[in-house]
Design brief:
Elements lengths: L19 E11 L6 E14 L14 E2 L2 E14 L3 E12 L4 E2 L16 E11 L1 H38 L2
Antiparallel strand pairs: 1-2, 2-4, 3-6, 4-5, 5-7
Length: 171
């Protein structure tokens, strides 16, 4: 329970555990790559499913109930840092829920107090991506070195064959 002052009602903070599975649909606008750096903007919408909406913790008598599905808009900014074989991409997104997640039930203690509940999130994420350009350049260089080694081996083999032939023939 929170503290109360004279003339004010009591405040109660209640935690509702959630396990969300989110399906984002984004458009990404990237800048030109400058050296090993690129910035991008992302925007779109998301669909969330709350896997714990029917859990026993949520179905307690004194809690509110939340709907299982949520829709929202997302916008954010991110950066690509290109390292030798990987690109590190930190990004920050702001998510704004559009649907009312509150499921009203007269039997629940706090259900009639709230008009609506909407989700709001600030999400920080980091992605590690394989830098295909560096990887392909390294693979091509390895293949080139391998072909050179094979050619060198074949030349040495031919030279050795001619030396052995000279020895056998007595030249």
């Amino acid at each position: 329970m929170g503290s109360t002052r004279p003339g004010e009602g009591s405040t109660q903070i209640q935690s509702l555990p959630s396990t969300l599975v989110s399906f984002p649909f984004h458009l990404k606008f990237s800048s030109d790559r400058i050296g090993n750096f690129r910035t991008y903007l992302i925007g779109g919408f998301r669909y969330d499913i709350d896997l714990s909406s029917n859990s026993t913790a949520r179905n307690a008598d004194d809690l509110i109930k939340l709907r299982r599905n949520d829709f929202g808009l997302e916008a954010g900014i991110g950066f690509n840092f290109y390292l030798p074989f990987v690109a590190v991409s930190p990004e920050i997104k702001i998510s704004y829920g559009l649907s009312n997640m509150h499921q009203t039930e007269a039997a629940l203690k706090y259900s009639n107090v709230l008009d609506k509940i909407q989700s709001r999130m600030v999400v920080f994420s980091t992605q590690l991506l394989r830098d295909t350009k560096s990887y392909e350049a390294l693979r091509e260089q390895n293949e080139k070195n391998f072909r050179e080694q094979i050619n060198k081996y074949n030349v040495e083999k031919e030279n050795l064959g001619s030396i052995l032939a000279d020895i056998v023939t007595g030249k």
